[in-house]
Amino acid sequence: MHDALWEKVQFLNQKKSFTPSRIFNGEFLLSGLIRCPKCGAAMVASRSKTKTGESVNRLYYSCGAFRSKGSSVCSANSIQKQAAEDEIMKRLAKVLSEKRILTAIVDRINHKLTTRTIPAPVGANAH
Questions:
Q1: Domain extents for the chain?
Q2: pLDDT of residue 66
Q3: Fewer Cβ within 10 Å of end Cβ, the chain: N or C?
């Protein structure tokens, strides 16, 4: 009895350790950064095919909770990849074109650079 249980546990552990291959070529810059408007979960890469099943990739960001847990948790709330990225870039360009915001960002980065501590080289304190 214990051997059968042991074998089942080993099989399940091996099954869980499998990492599926990546199905997308290219980058989804906003994965994990934009949120589902319904549940707040991270939006993740998604694609669809035509109704005839031909391989024409339509790329989207979809609710990660829906993708992993199904419709009992949320709905897809998909947005086209290019539309989402174009809108974010447009908003970023608008924000960064405001001098006070850009100056504040640069000042904050420079402050972090000047106040960071750099570890001493190994063996520097050895006499």
A1: 24-115
A2: 93
A3: C
